[in-house]
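lol so apparently i was supposed to do this last week
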Amino acid sequence: MDVKLINKWLRDNHFDVKVIESEESEYDHENQIIYFNSTEDEEITRDQVRYFKRRGLTNYSKKVVVFLHELGHSQTMDDANIFNQIVDKVLRNILYYSPTPNRTIQLLKYYLYHMLPLEKWATSWAVNYMLSNKEEVSVLEEIFN
Ligand SMILES: [Zn+2]
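anyway here it is w/ zinc ion bound
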């Protein structure tokens, strides 16, 4: 992944955010930075695939989805939803640091995580963006592949 190209894409599309390659994919709202892991293969559950499909999205690359989800945070998070930000952070930490003894618990955690309001908003923003900005998304696909 070429971080420079992604940052150029963000500028070209008037997003006031920067991307930095990192171990974890995460959005830092205070500094408007997307930390992004381009090497790890993030999991997309069957539920999410179904959610995408219901919205008319069948052809997408996982990396683009994950990246646009992080970008979605920057577009849906503002100081007005500080309460959601705190709830999200606390629950995220609980899910992240609690033990994961087996695959069922792992999937359950993943499912709960994506039910958090901020996560739902970010994913929904990403899906809408993909549906209405096909050209921009295909440029992004080229950068990632
Ligand atoms: Zn998220």
